[in-house]
C-alpha cells in the first residue's frame, strides 16, 4: 500500500518533507573497481576492452570484431517484424521533427558603440551513446539519444551496446540505423565508457558521452567528466499525476503503474482533490497488480515509494508538485493548460487525460531522457543543445575601442592586471598619435 | 623562453601532441578535507560555518553578521571612486544587453496528427554565486556570473565572498549591487558551497551554484553536484592568438601577457605564418617582462607554458587551433571573419587587431567565464541557459492518440513494458466503444 497524505493534516509538512527526502536509490559503491577498469583501458586499449568483455559479457572479441560491420547490422535488422519497424520509423520521424525545432540560431549585430557582437553554434565533433544490454536494452532510448545528436549536426556518432553471451537486440540496431548512427561497438560497462573517452587502437575517442547505464556506467561517466562532456546521471524514474475526480481511475492507475514497472526504486505519486477518486485509483492499481507481467517490480515500487496526496484545491497541488520537481508530470484536469502555468519545475508535462505518459516515452516527439531525483529544479531533459556549444564573437573597430576601451583600462587597473590594461592602452595610443 | 614549434618539422606532430597533453594544473587533493567540511555544515549549519570562517578567514561572525546588511553595503560602495563606478556601470550595461539576446523563446505548435507540442523555459528558483576573496576577487566576475542569472529571471540570487581578516572589496559589492544580487554573505571556501547547497539556519539553500574558486571550492562544487546544479569547474586561463606579419608585435605581446599574468599555470600560444614576426613578438614579450608588475607570474607562465608555432599557411593555423580548442582565440588577420568560419571549437573569438582579449574580460558584452583545458570541444561559456531549464509539453487529442497510439503500444510490447502499452490501450478502447 502506498503512503496516504492529506495536505490539510497538521503533520502534513513533516510527512511531505520526509517523502521528498526519502532516498530511493541504493547504488552500490563501485568507484574503485571502475577506476581500475578505466586505468586498464587507458593503458592497454583494445586488449583491456577485449579481456573485460570476455569476463563480464562472456563474449570473445578481437580488434576486428569489436565493431559491427554494416553487413552484420543488415542481417540483424532484417529480423525485425514489419509492425515494429513501422512503429520505430514513426517514432524516429516524430522525435526528429520535434528536436529540429530546438536548433538555436547564430546571431550577429552591431551596437551603438560600433562593436560587432554575436555568437555561433557548432556541434561536438564526435559523440558516444551508451546503450544498456540485456533487460534494459530499449530501442526507444537509442532514438531519444541519437536523433538529437544528429539533428545538432554531430558528424561522428558511435554507440556501444553490450551483447551478453552474444545476444544482440535487432531493434536496438534498427533504431541506431534509423537515427543515423555511424559506428556500433559490441561492448558495455565501464570499459565502454573508458574506450569512448580515451580511445583505443580500434575506437577513436569522442568529445561527449550520453546515455543511461547501471552503477558501473554511471560511476565511469562521473570519472571521465572533464576529459569529455557527459549528460546527466539518471536516477530511478518518477511520475506525478495531478487528477481531479472527472477521470477514469483505471487510466490513472495504469499511468502510475507505467512508471512503477520500470524499477522497484521508481516512484509514482497521485495528487487529487477527491479522496473518493484517490481510493478508486488505489483499488484499480491493486487489481492490475494481480495480473501485470512485471507485477513484482511494479508492486514493490508502488508499496515502497508510491504516494497518494489529497489536497483541498488544485493550486495546492501545483505548489506541492513544484517542490517535488517531477521528471514526468501529468495534468489530468479540465483546465490542464491553466494549471500548467503554475508549474515552475518539471521535466515534461503531459496535458489532459488523452496524453498518457507512455506516449512521451515513444512517439510523442519530446525527449524521454529527463531530469530525475528533483533535478528538474535546475536541469532540462536531453535536447539538441547537449550536442552543441556556443562560441561568442566580438569585433571592435577603432571607434568602438575608443568608446569602451577606457572603461576596460580602469577595471584592469582596479583588478591589478596591468597587461590587460596595457593591451588596450597600446592600441588607444596608436589612435591618438 | 617559450617552446618554438614549426608545423613543417618532421617531428611536429609529436611535439604538438605533447603540448596538447601537457598537464598544467597541479591542484592539491583536498577532497577528504572538503568532504569533512561539507558534512560538518550539513550537521551543524550556522555554527559550523561560523567556526570554519574563524579558522580560515580569521573573522568572527554570528548568525546575525553572516550576511551584509543593506546599510553595510551602502557604506562600502560609497568608497568606490567615480571613475571605477562609471566603468563598472558601463560594463554591467553592455553585459546585460548582450545576455538579454540569449533569452530563448517558448514554443508551441500543433502537428498534422493533431498533437500540440512545445516547451516552456523557467528560471531556477534560487542561484548562488561564489566570489573568491583576496587577490583573485574580481568585480568583473561578479558581473559576468550575476547578470546572466538576473537576465534569466532568477528570483533569488545570493553571493558568498570571503573577507579574510575582515577585508572587503567595495568594488565587488558594487558589482553585486549593479547586477541585482539579493543577498551577500561574508563567507568562503568549501563551507560557503556547503551552505549554499544544503542551507543553514540563516542561509536558505539554492538550486544552482556558479563561480570560480580555489581547489577547495572546486572540490566542494564537484561534491554537491547532483544535489544542486553547478557550472563548469574552471582550469587555468588560456589564449591562442593567430596573427600574420601585418601586426604590431607589441600589441600581440601584450595580449599574450594578459593571459600569462593571471596565473603561472596560464597558457599563451601564438600561431603565425611569419617566423620573423614570431621572433619580434617574443622579443617584445621579453621587454615587457622586465617591467610588468606581475612579471614573476607572467614570466613563469610564458617560460613554462608559452608556445610559438609557425605554420606554412593560415588554414593550418585554424586546424591546429581546433585541436587546442582554446578558451580565448584572437584572430589578428586581414580576413579574420573568413578564418573564423574554419573554427569549430573555441570559447570566444576576438576578431581583428582592434579587439584585444582584455576587452572581452570587461566591457565587450560576451561572458568571460569560458571553457578551459580543451573543454570548448564540448561546452560553452557561461550564459543565460545555465540558469534556465526547459519543460517539454505535449497534449494529445482523441484523434492524435488514435493516430500515434498504436505505434506506442507496439513499442511498449517490444520493450516488455506492459503497463505502458495498457495505458494507451485503455484509452483507445474507450474511443472504439
TrEMBL record, chains A, B:
GO terms for cellular component: cytosol. It catalyses: L-histidinol + 2 NAD(+) + H2O = L-histidine + 2 NADH + 3 H(+). It is an enzyme of class 1 (oxidoreductase). The keyword Zinc applies. One of its GO terms (molecular function) is zinc ion binding. Its cofactor is Zn(2+). GO terms for biological process: L-histidine biosynthetic process. Keywords: Amino-acid biosynthesis, Histidine biosynthesis, Metal-binding, NAD, Oxidoreductase, Zinc. Its EC number is 1.1.1.23. SUPFAM superfamilies: ALDH-like. Substrate binds at residues 237, 259, 262, 328, 361, 415, 420. NAD(+) binds at residues 130, 191, 214. The active site is at residues 327-328. It holds the Pfam family Histidinol_dh. InterPro entries: Ald_DH/histidinol_DH, Histidinol_DH_CS, Histidinol_DH_monofunct, Hstdl_DH. The keyword Cell membrane does not apply. Zn(2+) binds at residues 259, 262, 361, 420. Binds 1 zinc ion per subunit. Pathway: Amino-acid biosynthesis; L-histidine biosynthesis; L-histidine from 5-phospho-alpha-D-ribose 1-diphosphate: step 9/9. NCBIfam families: hisD. PANTHER family: HISTIDINE BIOSYNTHESIS TRIFUNCTIONAL PROTEIN, HISTIDINOL DEHYDROGENASE HDH. Belongs to the histidinol dehydrogenase family. Catalyzes the sequential NAD-dependent oxidations of L-histidinol to L-histidinaldehyde and then to L-histidine. This is Histidinol dehydrogenase. The gene is hisD.
